[in-house]
From TrEMBL:
Keywords: Membrane, Transmembrane, Transmembrane helix, Transport. Residues 70-139 form the ABC-2 type transporter transmembrane domain. The chain crosses the membrane at residues 94-112, 124-142. The keyword Nucleus does not apply. This is ABC-2 type transporter transmembrane domain-containing protein. Residues 1-16 have a biased composition (Polar residues). It holds the Pfam family ABC2_membrane. It is found in: Membrane. One of its GO terms (cellular component) is membrane. One of its GO terms (molecular function) is ABC-type transporter activity.
């Protein structure tokens, strides 16, 4: 059969759902083009082309919205699948977090319960440093092969 390389084949004949007999690829292609022109998808496509949305994405372009619980379930499911697929990455991330926590704890070990201005600055510095380090910790990907 010579359909894949688009050469006319005198032995091939295809019937359409309307009962029209198509003898060669040219007739078949023309039949497909005519069916596309009559389809609802083509009408929707042409309507979008005639009046494009130039203001970016707005709420009218979405038909349905996923609820927050649904989005959260998908995200946790994806993270869970990645953890099952790569258990060494999970262990490496846990070790990285523990080591970083110990370093931060040792740096700010002597702050004590000093309620003066310098003690408050020390605690705020420790909290800021912890948050920044943990935020950047998620950006570094550990590749284990």
């Amino acid at each position: 059969m010579t359909v894949l390389n688009n050469q006319p084949d005198s032995e091939m004949s295809i019937s359409t759902p309307d009962g029209i007999e198509l003898k060669n690829n040219d007739e078949r292609i023309n039949g497909l083009l005519q069916a596309w022109k009559k389809s609802e998808e083509n009408a929707n496509f042409e309507a979008e082309v005639r009046s494009p949305c130039t203001g970016g994405i707005d709420k009218s372009t979405f038909k349905t919205y996923a609820a927050f619980k649904t989005q959260l379930a998908y995200l946790f499911g994806r993270v869970g699948r990645n953890a099952v697929r790569n258990p060494m990455v999970v262990k490496a991330k846990a070790g990285q977090s523990i080591i970083l926590s110990l370093i931060i704890g040792l740096l700010f070990q002597g702050t004590g319960t000093d309620f003066s201005y310098s003690g408050a600055q020390n605690r705020n510095g420790m909290l800021f440093f912890s948050v920044v380090c943990l935020a950047y910790l998620t950006k570094f990907y550990i590749s284990i092969k």
